[in-house]
Design brief:
The structure holds two protein chains of two kinds.
Chain A (H helix, E strand, L loop, with lengths): L22 H20 L3 H24 L1 H39 L14 H10 L8 H32 L4 H14 L3 H15 L7 H25 L3 H9 L4 H28 L4 H6 L18 H10 L8 H32 L6
Helix pairs in contact in A: 1-2, 2-3, 3-13, 5-8, 5-10, 5-12, 6-8, 7-8, 8-10, 9-10, 10-13, 12-13
Chain B lengths: L4 E10 L2 E11 L4 E5 L6 H7 L10 E9 L2 E2 L7 H7 E4 L11 H5 L1 H4 L7 H14 L3 H4 L12 H14 L4 E5 L7 H14 L4 E5 L3 H7 L2 E7 L6 E8 H6 L4 H7 L5
Parallel strand pairs in B: 2-10, 3-8, 3-9, 6-7, 7-8
Antiparallel strand pairs in B: 1-2, 1-4, 4-5, 9-10
Helix pairs in contact in B: 5-7, 7-8
Classes of the chains: A mainly alpha, B alpha/beta.
Chain lengths: 369, 259
């Protein structure tokens, strides 16, 4: 008699040992406890606890995995630990900044009249009163916000045509020739110009052309556009480059001239990338402090004319409020206003980034049936 | 509405590299002419010289004459844009404009050149061109949808509709079916058969059966080896090329004994 017994197997021949699903959580709990214990010996602090626990967690999980699952899976777990760890380290400063600015800036931003009034007429007397008698903190950032918006818009108006046309030359007409390579080189150099140098350039240029001591929003806009143009050129160039050549050839084969092909086929195809590149370039320069300080000066009152008179902006407002408090005896109201302005600035940059994503989605070539 | 093309002693260069050597060929009006040959033998390069698309690439140039009904395309003062509006082209991979609707893709040749066209005329042109490309029935209810949402075969027929909307004299097709499935290929081949009633059609193909099916005359190009220029080996009626070729190389190629 032959038996047709199938051998009873505990495990598929295709798998090795596997860690249970709960393994990472167990290791994490143990690492946290052990980390706390070690830190208790040398004096506890939260940062050290995190670091020690992370190292213990990685070592424990990789060791356990090596023992049960073999070296390939252990290496995989090690790589995962490193990737996630790096991500957390990168995230740390961002969260810390947002937290600090939110915590310090919210009282400033909800103070009455903060967004709607300027610092005109707000003197140390009022700040002393606010601290000593509990009166509301007066003064606001309206003038600085207005200045930032004006300077940035003017800088964008200057930079976008120059940057976009440069990118078009590089991609469509340059053919990687000598001039194109020279432009690329100098654009790269411009990318690395320290912002204060851009500010000094604009200041010196206007001093020479218009007259000594010329400080207006327009000078600041020129300084910012020096910083913006290379960013716009670079991002637009990359976007124009990825427009498939087939589309250009399709247009040429229909008897369309080159400039019309660029205007009506190439740019519309790349517009979402170009627009988000421009928005990111704006976000990059909107927080510049040094070049504005040397070009637009500093004002406490509202200035609606970008071509005349000193002009405040959010970064310079923050700078002066911290460095030269309105009331030297009681700097707290000033620092409250500065943090509020910082929060507004971060919100502006965040909105611009969201705007860039929205623009990219709106303009993106449509697919679907 | 179709013109003949006569090529005399044409040499095609990329920089200093001679890509195609000494081609002379007469392409009849209202006929389908197929170019066959192994990869890299210069048939696509030669095709692109017929509407001056070759020179879009930096360093590319041409020596010799290409006569469109007697007018030299490469004569002094000839505007390549004028040439291309008379000699349309369909490419290997379907390339509808992704930012445009199906309707705007058909009208691209008109609209991109900023020609004024009334809505009625535009509608008629769209319908006529899409009918001509055998695509009207499939897309008439979604003309405002993006062209990139169509299937590959439909996209290629959209590109053909776009090419015939500018009413060219000649249509060049560079392996128009190589990215398509057999059903779509059949649709495009049927279309080519209808197009030759009105247009001069020149088609490059890797598929010898396709050349045998659609073309009236066939040109066989070959290359002596890598780095050597491509040459026109034989040009005759399609039946002759496939049944009774004059050259040994042609016979080897069409019978599959190549190499």
């Amino acid at each position: 008699m032959t038996s047709t017994l199938t051998p009873v197997r505990k495990r598929s021949a295709l798998t090795k040992g596997q860690l249970p699903k709960y393994a990472p959580y167990v290791v994490l709990a143990l690492a946290l406890i052990a980390g706390a214990a070690i830190l208790a010996l040398i004096g506890f602090n939260a940062f050290g606890w995190g670091i020690v626990s992370a190292i213990l967690f990685a070592a424990g999980l990789v060791g356990w995995s090596a023992a049960v699952e073999g070296s390939r899976k252990a290496k995989d777990k090690l790589a995962t630990c490193l990737v996630v760890g790096s991500f957390l380290i990168a995230l740390l400063p961002l969260i810390s900044v947002i937290w600090t600015v939110l915590a310090n800036g919210l009282p400033g931003i909800i103070a009455p009249g903060f967004l709607g009034s300027s610092m005109n007429g707000v003197t140390g007397v009022y700040d002393n009163k606010a601290v000593e008698e509990g009166a509301p903190v007066l003064g606001g950032i309206y003038h600085a916000l207005l200045g930032t918006v004006q300077i940035t818009i003017l800088a964008t108006i200057i930079s976008v045509p120059v940057g976009l046309l440069t990118a078009i030359y590089l991609v469509e007409y340059g053919h990687d020739g000598r001039l194109a390579r020279a432009i690329t080189f100098f654009v790269d150099v411009m990318t690395g110009i320290p912002s204060i140098v851009a500010g000094l350039f604009a200041a010196a240029f206007f001093f020479a052309v218009v007259g000594p001591g010329t400080k207006t929003g327009a000078v600041a806009a020129v300084a910012l556009s020096v910083l913006m143009i290379p960013v716009v050129v670079r991002s637009s160039e990359e976007m124009l480059k990825i427009v498939p050549n087939e589309l250009r050839e399709a247009a040429y084969a229909l008897g369309v001239r080159k400039w019309r092909t660029i205007l009506k086929v190439v740019i519309p195809t790349a517009i979402s990338g170009i627009a988000s590149g421009v928005t990111l370039a704006i976000a990059r320069v909107i927080g510049e402090t040094a070049p504005i300080l040397v070009t637009a000066g500093f004002a406490t009152s509202i200035n609606g004319n970008v071509f005349g008179g000193w002009m405040a902006s959010l970064p310079t407002f923050i700078y002066t409020q911290i460095l030269n408090p309105t009331s030297p005896a009681n700097p707290d109201p000033s620092s409250q206003r500065a943090w509020g302005a910082a929060l507004v600035l971060i919100i502006l940059v965040m909105l611009l980034n969201l705007g860039a994503r929205l623009i990219a989605r709106l303009f993106a070539p449509k697919t679907g049936r | 509405m179709s013109k003949r093309i006569d090529v005399k002693d044409l040499n095609v260069y990329y920089g200093n590299f001679l890509a195609v050597e000494d081609v002379s060929i007469n392409i009849e009006a209202k006929s389908v002419t197929a170019f066959i040959g192994p990869s890299g033998c210069g048939k696509s390069t030669f095709l692109r010289t017929l509407n001056r698309m070759h020179e879009v690439l930096p360093g590319a140039r041409v020596e010799g004459e290409v006569l469109l009904d007697g007018d030299n395309l490469y004569g002094p003062g000839v505007d390549p844009v004028t040439v291309r509006s008379q000699i349309g082209m369909v490419f290997q991979r379907p390339n509808p404009f992704p930012t445009m609707s199906i309707r705007d893709n058909v009208l691209a040749g008109v609209k991109l050149n900023n020609q004024k066209i009334s809505k009625g005329e535009a509608d008629a042109l769209v319908e006529r061109s899409l009918q001509g490309a055998n695509l009207w029935n499939e897309v008439k209810d979604r003309l405002e949808k993006p062209g990139s949402g169509l299937s590959g075969g439909q996209q290629q027929r959209l590109c053909i509709a776009r090419a015939i909307a500018v009413e060219p004299q000649v249509i060049l097709m560079d392996e128009p079916c190589s990215a398509l499935d057999p059903i779509s290929t059949l649709a495009v081949e049927d279309l080519i058969n209808e197009l030759k009633d009105q247009y001069t059609v020149v088609i490059v193909t890797h598929n010898m059966q396709q050349a045998a099916r659609v073309s009236d005359r066939t040109a066989f190009f070959n290359i002596a080896g890598t780095g050597k220029p491509g040459k026109l080996i034989e040009f005759a009626d399609t039946t002759t090329i496939f049944n009774n070729p004059g050259q040994k190389a042609t016979e080897d190629y069409v019978s599959g004994r190549f190499g």
